[in-house]
């Protein structure tokens, strides 16, 4: 598969995201907000304090508080750890299915 074909293919199937930065930025903002709310809801549903979740992830309580309030953006490493800690619940809570249904880059 040539690079030209990949670019043309992606452009046709994902045109609204490739050429529309405001749409992408809006989706990213929605995703971050959803993750923040999800962390708090899942933590509470598992009866964990911020300190306890912080200990599990190897960060302090203030870091968890900052993630939940949106003051700090978590690293990909910590986001993946949350997926490992909360499993399927995190996947569903954050509605990662919307990301998975986007066209794949070939």
TrEMBL record:
Signal sequence residues: none
CDD domains tied to this protein: HTH_XRE (cd00093)
Domain of life of the source: Bacteria
Keywords: DNA-binding
Annotated TM spans: none
Domain HTH cro/C1-type intervals: 39-90
UniProt entry tagged with the keyword Lyase: no
One Pfam short name: HTH_3
GO molecular function: DNA binding
Xref: InterPro entries: Cro/C1-type_HTH, Lambda_DNA-bd_dom_sf
SMART domains assigned to the protein according to its UniProt record, in alphabetical order: HTH_XRE
Protein name per the record: HTH cro/C1-type domain-containing protein
Organism: Pseudoalteromonas luteoviolacea H33
